Every structure is written in structure tokens, then in C-alpha cells.
Known about the structure:
Helices cover 27% and strands 23% of the residues. It is α/β, with parallel strands linked by helices.
Amino acid sequence: MITIGKTKSVCPECMKVVPAKKCIGEDGIYLVKECNAHGKFQTLIWEGNVTDYLSWGRENLSAETPVNPKVKEKSCPDNCGLCEEHERKGCCMILEVTKRCNMHCPVCFASAGEGGENGDIPISEIEKQYDFLMAHGGPFNIQLSGGEPTMRDDLPEIIHMGRKKEFTFFQLNTNGIRLAREDGYARKLKKAGLNTVFLQFDGVTDQVYETLRGQAMMELKKKAILNCSEAELGIALVPVIAPGVNDMQVGDILKFGLDHMPFVRGVHFQPISYFGRCSQKRPTNPITIPKMLRLIEEQTEGLMKIEDFAGGGAENPYCSFHASYLRKGERELKLLEKKSGKGCCCTTSDDSRQYVENQWSYSTKTYDEGEMTQTDALDEFLIRIHNETFAVSGMIFQDAWNLDLDRLKRCYICEVDPDHGMVPFCAYNLTNLKGIYLYRK
């Protein structure tokens, strides 16, 4: 194999940091590493040729220093909070409010399950976490997660408290069960200050949910979307894509999202990562960014094209892909121009935070036509344009096989942990071959 780059990774067996190389192989670019105790490991990280791989990245990416870094002595990836050598100050903070869940999915990065109320994080502790975030670079976008956060009856109070702390954007990561079954619940969350629902949405048939979630859920998903739409909450469909399970439904998911605009603001794909509780066997060639983009183009029959997409600008480009479209007709989309070369317009954590807040929220502002000024008319036009945009994005999370410390140090999606501070998502959820976490207790 021809080496085109070097980095550091971890051994999937013992999690020890080891040197790693990026090499040209039969199907594309591989991450190759060797542990003195456990041998050699390699995995595909880019399906395609080296030219495309190198052009996806960008040189001279600016770095940011975290605000008041908690960790002074760098020991990546097992001692972060953030550390002084991290290159992002953070955008989205995942606040896990409970370890409880009303499901026991065969695939779950948090290994969540049913449990008693002692699985809830005390609201006094959540307030301390809000204050910690404000003192370390806030306000960040807040992702309320778990477990299943809607297991808590005081979730509206948690959102309201965050609003009083001057956080401006709240996203709910949820399976949608309570949103579907409880009348008025979506409106209650909206009134408390929730902006967006990131809805677990793995496909359009029950068979997919039976495999990945352990039960049929399609009708529940439809009802949750209806209730969120009636409450005027923005919705992002979030599919975990697993080879041979639902990779053939990528186009159907996108069509479903387009059919449910303007409240469905887009689709955020998450190709399956093999950490936490995962019933799926890790293949030799997992889903890469080029594979996802090819699935999108083929299954939308060219409505969305590979060349429409680019890597992120705030995070490492090899972590994500993104394109935004303006809907012009029932089956016509216009690609929105990118603002800085090939990449996304977001080049800093603050840029990204603002983009997420704008894109995933539904604008509810209205104007009285009888009293409308020229300025109001322009504002109404811009709101209509905003509500007709549709984002397609994806995040390629890292596991113990493909972890690249150069990627990790630019991570701006962090888990809030009372012991460690702000921990990059892929480090916090990292598990070895036996399912033992690096951070989670």
C-alpha cells in the first residue's frame, strides 16, 4: 500500500494510542495501524480514488482555541474537557438529561434502556452544566438527549431554565414515541422554547425499524411528525444507515422529507458507527462519504447530485457532508450556492452554531397584509424562502477502527460530562471490541 498521510488512532482491543497511516488500497483509502500487543488493523475510510479524497479536504483550515479549556495537559482521546490543543471551541453540546429509555434498540450508542427514575440527572446538576457551558464559550446550541429525554415530565422546565440562562437554540433528540402518543405534548415543548426535533427516522417500512429498533414504528413516526408540524416545530429526520438494512431506502427517506416540507427542514444521515450497543457486524468496507453520496444521487435519480455536496468547514471535512436546496416545484430543487469555494459556508464554531439554528428551525413569523410596509414585505419574502429550503447532510462518526485524532481535535459536537467537561462526541462514545467505554460509566 502507498502511504499518503500519517495520523494517530487507537487499538480497537486495548484503546492504546498507536501510529496510523492513510494508504491507497484496492477500494480506496484505508486507515492502517498496528498495536504491539494486538496486531494490525485496517479499515476503509474513503471509497474512491486518491484525487477525490485529497480534493475533499482543504488546506489552511483556521483553528480556534477553546474558551477556558478545562484540561491543561493533553492526553487525546482519553482526557479531554476540552484541552488546550483542541482546535474548536464548540458548537453543539449534547446534554444527556436521563439514562432511561422507553425502548431497548439493538443499535444504541449510549447503550440506553429502561430504568427507574434514578436514571434522571437531577435538575440542579443540569443547571450547573448550563452554567459551566456559559463559562466555557456559551451560548452553544443545546441538544437534549439521553436515553430518551421525553421520559422526563419536567423536560419543558429544563428547556425554560436554559432559555433563562440565555441559550438560544434547543434541539430534542428523540424516538418520537411520546410526541406521537400524547396530545398537546409537542405544543408544550414549543411553548417552553424548543426549536427543533431531531427525529430518529431510519426508513419508510416497519421492517427497517424491527431490525434496528426492535419493533415496528412507521405509524408512530408519521404521527410524531404530524403533531410536531401542528405545533410549528422544525423537524430533522435522522436516519442511521446500516449496510443491507436500509441503505436501499436513502432515496425514499429524502422523498418523504421533501413531501413533508416545510416543517421537515431536511435529512441528517448518520451511517452506522460500531460503538455502544450494536447488533450489526462491522463490515470490512463500512459506509463512507462517497458511498453515501452515490446512494443519494442514484436513489433520487439525479435530483440531488454528488457534486452538490461538500465537507464541513468548521469541523474536519472528512467528518461530514452537506448541501442545501431551494424547492422550486413538486420535483424541482435549486442548489443553493456555497459561500466559500468548495466547502460549507461555516468556517468557525460560531458560524456553524448560527447555521444550525437557522436551518433546522421553522419560521413562524407572520405579517398583517393590510399594514405591511415595504420592509415587512421583504422580510415575509425572506421567511418564505427560508421555509422552502431543505438541507441534506450527514455525519461520519468515528469508532475504534477508524478513529483519527486529527479529525477528533476539530470536533465541535461535545457531550457534557460533570467529571470531564466537554468531551468530543466520538471520544465520549468510543468502545473497544468488548463494548467497554472510554468515558461512559
